[in-house]
Structures are given as C-alpha cells and as structure tokens.
Amino acid sequence: MKTITDFQHKKILVLGLAKSGVSAALLLHKLGAFVTVNDQKPLDENPQAQHLLEQGIKVICGSHPIELLEEGFEMIVKNPGIPYSNPLVSGAIAKGISVLTEVELAYLISEAPLIGITGTNGKTTTTTLIYKMFEADRKKAIIAGNIGEVASQVVQQATKEDHVVIELSSFQLMGVDQFRPHISIITNIYDAHLDYHGTKEEYVKAKLNITKNQTEDDFFIVNADQEELFQFAKQSKAVIVPFSTKKTVANGAYVENGEIYFRGEKIIKLQEIALPGAHNLENILCAISAVKLARVSNEAIREVLSTFSGVRHRTQFVRELNGRKFYNDSKATNTLATKSALAAFSEPTVLLAGGLDRGNDFDDLIPYLNNVKALVTFGQTAHKLAETARKAGIFEVVKVETMAQAVTQAYQLSESGDTILLSPACASWDQYKTFEQRGDIFIEAVHTLN
C-alpha cells in the first residue's frame, strides 16, 4: 500500500461499523489519525466495537449523539447504509465537514489499478466474470467491495502487479472525493433505491461519481442501449467504451451474427456461452470490455464463458433431475430482476415467487409470464401473485408455507423439459433473514428430490 500522510494527526469520526467501518477505523488509526468510532449498537452487544477499543481507538456506542459535531472532527467516514438524512451526517455537511465512504480510503492507499463496477443490475455477475477471466489468464487480481473483502482492507496487500476489481453501490459512490478507477463500468440504470436518494436524478448522479475523476488515460465502459445513460456518460473525460446487445459499436463490445466482438475482433460464439439470459449478455459484454482493455487473452475469456454458469443466488443453475432444470434466482428481490430471469428462458417454466409485501402489485410481470405454466407462491405476497397469475391466464397456482413445500409442489407440477425457477420478485424478510438464506434452503430442498 502507498504510504500517505493525508490523515496524520487529523480528528476523524467513523460513523457506523459493520465490516467497512471496522476496516476504515483500523486503517485510519494505522495512518496516524485520531479516530473516534460511533455505532448505534450498545458496547456490550458489539464485539467489533470492543475489538477497536482494545486497539486503542475511542469508541462511543448506543446512539448517534448530535453533540459529536462539537468535537472538531475534520472528516467523517460513514457506513454506506447510513442515510444522508441522519442528523449527524446532515449536520456535518452543513458545517462543511467532508463525509466519505471507505472506498475513498481504498483508492488513496492502493498501489494497484482499480476496476470499479456499478449499475442497478448485474454488478455481482460482471465483477465475478472479470475476476475469473484474470484468474484464467494467470494475472493477479483481487475481488473487493460488496462481494469479497472490504476494499480498504484488500488494497493494503495489493501491489502494482494486481488488479483490484470492486463492486460499488450508489451508497458508496455518494461518499467519494478523489476516487478514480482506471477502468469504470456502469452496467445499466433503472429506478432503484429512491427511498435513499430521493429522485432518479440523484441516483444517476451518484452512479456517475464512478467516472467523475477519470482522465483521458482511463476507460469508462457504459451501456449504449440506454440512450439517456449514454448521453450522461459523455460528460466523462475518460475514453468511452460502449457495449450493446442491439447494435454494432465500433469502439466497444457487441453481438453480430451470433458472435461477440470487441473492437471488431471475434471473441466467442453465443452458443458456446454457459451463462443463460439476455440480461447476462450485457454483463458478459461489460466483462469482456474490461479484461480486453487489461490485455487478458481471448483463450482465458472463452474458458470462463464456456464453463461459468452463474453467481450463487443469481439465476444459478442448481441441478437437472428427470429432465427438469432447477435455477436459483433468490437475489431477485423486485419485479425488475424477475422480469430479467423470466426472459432468460424459453422452455415451459414453473415459477416459485413471493415474500415481503411492500405494497406494490405484480401486474408488470404479466408480459413476461408467457412461458410460465404454473406458479407456486409463498410469503406475504402469495395472494397478490396468485391474482397476477390469473390475469395472465395461469390457472395452475399453488400456495405453500415453506420453501421445501414449494420445491415439492413445483416438481409435481412440472414434466421433462421444463424449467423450475425460484425468482421471488420480493424481499425475503417476511420469512428469512436474507435472500441468501432463502436461496440456500431452496438449493437444499432441490437436492433432496429423487
């Protein structure tokens, strides 16, 4: 890591813990800052805060006292999940105190070039593909951010020979100042997280922070099929590298005659790709663009794309049994994600869906239900999804209580040649702690069938 003096003897407040807060606090302490950590969880229930206390770092737990703003902090490094409406955060901004997230620290100390990936959908799959392509080409790479380890932690061990591949949320990108990846990617942008950002304009602005400090020596990979986003991207000083599933883009990645090209060079035939779905084709084009810019071989790209069948819980192939193929898309916590999953399959499909009721209906799924022959519903939204199915002309609808029951019913409703797809269109919190837990239970239930 770079030796920097930017934080030496500065009073810095780390607001909120979790993994990123712990990493930021320890790093700032190592860099000579006077660090105070503030976390809402009481100290006696907070092993992370206790660990920091043992390292000689000042810790205040149990609440976010507004009085902290009177202690002369020069900077706040906040957990991305803490909203800007938090009184400590809004009060700090009013006082002119910088409010950053830990990815800013990662950039400042990193010797390795950074590849930053953001977007509404596809971030994790794109990040994983890029990492695996580097790995297949025997080039050093480290995966970080929302998947992998905390960025400010892994860059401490990274060298100039490494590539640090970071998945970035809009929450993280709101809190950057000098952050500058050598290669940045926006996979796509749809309406999301408006409860946090307030408006789509603010959400887009946060995403575009990924390129705001890039120069003509850097690259910005962007979705040319989203015209509004592509026009915004032209504000960047970086070299624009477009990708498109619909048209030829001379300076980027595209599909033509059943093959993927990058800047006119044939890379791979679509029929050789293991990862299903039109939405994943966007992710593949992003990944190819990034690694070709980093001089990864076509052989390594083809090796990954011909074998990689998906990230866990994201249209993940689980098993084939008696001609039925099972897919786990538990990460689909909204209708947009479920639309993408449904569009990935042309076979007759038994859909498993349901979960937390956020007050919305599901009628926007109707145009995507043409191949759905049966629906198994569960959770708080079971009745709403059943009504949507009836509107779509699906009359095989079964309501169940558990995921194990859902898998058994789906198998009974299916026949050889069918796809059985878990894509809930809802968050998991009515029945499960996380979407990962929901997906793991689905996988376990699938493997008990015989």
From TrEMBL:
One Pfam family from the record: MurD-like_N
SUPFAM superfamilies the record matches: MurCD N-terminal domain (SSF51984), MurD-like peptide ligases, catalytic domain (SSF53623), MurD-like peptide ligases, peptide-binding domain (SSF53244)
Pathway: Cell wall biogenesis; peptidoglycan biosynthesis
Reactions catalysed: UDP-N-acetyl-alpha-D-muramoyl-L-alanine + D-glutamate + ATP = UDP-N-acetyl-alpha-D-muramoyl-L-alanyl-D-glutamate + ADP + phosphate + H(+)
Any one GO molecular-function label of the UniProt entry: UDP-N-acetylmuramoylalanine-D-glutamate ligase activity
UniProtKB keywords: ATP-binding, Cell cycle, Cell division, Cell shape, Cell wall biogenesis/degradation, Cytoplasm, Ligase, Nucleotide-binding, Peptidoglycan synthesis
Mur ligase C-terminal domain: residues covered: 313-426
Compartment annotation: Cytoplasm
EC code(s) of this entry: 6.3.2.9
InterPro entries recorded: Mur-like_cat_sf, Mur_ligase_C, Mur_ligase_C_dom_sf, Mur_ligase_cen, MurD
Annotated binding of ATP, by residue: G119, T120, N121, G122, K123, T124, T125
Mur ligase central domain: residues covered: 117-290
Enzyme category, top tier: ligase
Function: Cell wall formation. Catalyzes the addition of glutamate to the nucleotide precursor UDP-N-acetylmuramoyl-L-alanine (UMA).
Family per record: Belongs to the MurCDEF family.
PANTHER family membership: UDP-N-ACETYLMURAMOYLALANINE--D-GLUTAMATE LIGASE
Protein name (Swiss-Prot/TrEMBL): UDP-N-acetylmuramoylalanine--D-glutamate ligase
Organism: Bacillus kandeliae
